[in-house]
Design brief:
By secondary structure, this protein is of the alpha/beta class. The chain is built from 4 helices and 22 strands. The chain has helices spanning 25-29, 130-137, 153-169, 171-182, and strands at 3-6, 13-15, 21-23, 36-39, 42-49, 52-54, 57-59, 62-69, 72-74, 77-79, 82-84, 87-89, 92-94, 97-99, 102-104, 107-109, 112-114, 118-119, 122-124, 127-128, 142-144, 147-148. The longest helix is centred in the C-terminal third of the chain and has 17 residues, at 153-169.
Amino acid sequence: MNTLTKFIDFNLQLHNHSGEQNEGEINRGSKGSRYEVIESETLLNSDLNELQISGSLFSLTTFKNVTFQSCVFYASKIENCQFVNCKFIDCSFQFTEMNYCHLKGTVFVNCKWDLSPCKNNQLDFCGLDNKTSFFLSKYSNEMNACHKIDETKWQREREEEMAAQVEESGVGFLLSQFKKLAA
């Protein structure tokens, strides 16, 4: 059965003890938030940008070719889901659990993980940034044929800086001479 249920109805009207009708203060402060249960759904070929997913449950859901760009997953639970050829770019996972999911060909780029346990997941052919790779290796996740994504910008800049220093110091000239002698 496909369900999409909002836990909080934003049109909820509250009554005070005098019988006056007022919009609930909780709803006034969080118009942009969604509290949902998404179960047994399939989401295909979508680009989701700058979403704030808070207090949600994703269960038995399949995501195919979905890009999550600059999304925040806060106090949510993702369980028994499949992610096929998905991308998580500049996403933040805060107090979010990801358990028993299967990720295939999914890429994580520049993601942050704050108190978000990810256990018993299976990752096949995934591209992982350094933080995600470290974070997932702390827990019991099965990783098959996963690879690290291109190193960060500061690492490339440091390598270029070191190569320039070698050239300036004359060591580069000596190395080229040794290569010629060895040939």
